[in-house]
From TrEMBL:
<dbReference type="InterPro" id="IPR043426">
    <property type="entry name" value="MltB-like"/>
</dbReference>
<dbReference type="InterPro" id="IPR058593">
    <property type="entry name" value="ARB_07466-like_C"/>
</dbReference>
<protein>
    <recommendedName>
        <fullName>ARB-07466-like C-terminal domain-containing protein</fullName>
    </recommendedName>
</protein>
<feature type="compositionally biased region" description="Low complexity">
    <location>
        <begin position="181"/>
        <end position="191"/>
    </location>
</feature>
<dbReference type="Pfam" id="PF26571">
    <property type="entry name" value="VldE"/>
</dbReference>
<dbReference type="GO" id="GO:0008933">
    <property type="term" value="F:peptidoglycan lytic transglycosylase activity"/>
</dbReference>
<feature type="domain" description="ARB-07466-like C-terminal">
    <location>
        <begin position="199"/>
        <end position="311"/>
    </location>
</feature>
<feature type="region of interest" description="Disordered">
    <location>
        <begin position="181"/>
        <end position="203"/>
    </location>
</feature>
<dbReference type="GO" id="GO:0009253">
    <property type="term" value="P:peptidoglycan catabolic process"/>
</dbReference>
<dbReference type="InterPro" id="IPR023346">
    <property type="entry name" value="Lysozyme-like_dom_sf"/>
</dbReference>
């Protein structure tokens, strides 16, 4: 039996959605999607909150399914607010009642083998409740192969190649429009910054980290501040001026898809290095330095192992 996802803290998320908040790059991106693409902010908060329950799943996939199925719950067709449609599907994410668990509304403690989920922690799994339905959709996709085989998972949701293509295209559109804006270009050299905040990194490094999180949705850890730096002299990590964007765990060589993600992160960092104050990038035992762009990527000496040679993560340091 699959477990029930219960998030009592979701009430705080929904409360936050109802009032203005200080925008970080991530929440600014969310607000841009809501205004540009017409996604109701309360629904968008749910997509974003539900995605991490399936590690590596992007909120944009849930949002795309919600858009295609019921226009984020706004459709007036049968089966969205009550009852079922001609195929027996119900709710904002259009679950078959049999897939949900046999009834449209189930007590959280009595859910059987279906995908019914108590997403808002009210004790009930209601197929018409957006929080419950969206968290259940994340659970369903995860059980059917997401994020490793996203096409397979989406096809399981709706057995149509055209549907899969439409979801992926809509998700990509949301992600592209969600990318936060870059800071304005500096008129001169960037002044050094001191680390601050609970993550103990500089504001410049925090901006780069958050932009990459939003743009590339990394599946693995992002390691920034550490007191010893891990290398002779410490490097930039103890100064809060460096982050490692991991692409695997346990020192293993990343899968091809994750290597492609690393290539994309490195290329993006190169393209925006001057604007963001990026000092250098290390990836695949090579270093690229902003102050020496004509040299391109320079090979580095062998330090031994995938991690030491930066084959399992992209390292970015800022001024």
């Amino acid at each position: 039996m699959l477990g029930v996802v219960s998030l009592p803290v979701l009430a705080a998320v929904l409360t936050q959605a109802a009032r203005p908040a200080t925008l970080t790059p991530d929440t600014e991106a969310i607000a841009q999607v809501a205004s540009v693409d017409g996604v109701p902010l309360a629904m968008l908060r749910l997509y974003v909150a539900a995605a991490p329950t399936c590690p590596g799943l992007s909120w944009s996939v849930l949002a795309a399914i919600g858009k295609i199925e019921t226009d984020h719950g706004r459709s007036t067709l049968p089966g969205v607010k009550s009852g079922t449609n001609h195929a027996g599907a119900a709710g904002p994410m259009q679950f078959l009642i049999s897939t949900w668990g046999g009834k449209a509304k189930l007590k959280a403690g009595s859910i059987g083998s279906g995908y019914a989920t108590d997403g808002d922690g009210d004790g009930w799994a209601d197929v018409y409740n957006p929080a419950d339905a969206i968290f259940a959709a994340a659970k369903y996709l995860c059980a059917h192969g997401a994020p490793a085989d996203l096409k397979k998972a989406i096809f399981a949701y709706n057995h149509s190649d055209a549907y899969v293509a439409s979801v992926l295209a809509t998700a990509e559109n949301y992600r592209a429009k969600a990318a936060p804006k870059l800071p304005p270009a500096s008129a001169g050299p960037l002044a050094p910054e001191r680390p601050s905040g609970p993550d103990n990194i500089t504001p410049r490094m925090r901006t780069v980290r958050d932009l990459i999180k939003t743009q590339f949705n990394p599946r693995y850890a992002i390691g920034c501040y550490r007191p010893d730096g891990g290398i002779p002299g410490g490097g930039e990590h103890p100064l809060g001026r460096a982050c490692d964007f991991m692409l695997s765990t346990g020192g293993r060589l990343p899968a091809p898809g994750e290597q492609a993600r690393g290539d994309a992160i490195a290329a993006w960092a190169q393209a925006h290095a001057a604007r963001l104050g990026i000092r250098y990038i290390i990836w695949k035992q090579r270093i690229w330095q902003t102050r020496l762009p004509g040299q391109g990527w320079k090979p580095m000496t062998d330090r031994g192992g995938h991690t030491a040679n930066h084959f399992d993560h992209v390292h970015i340091s800022v001024d």
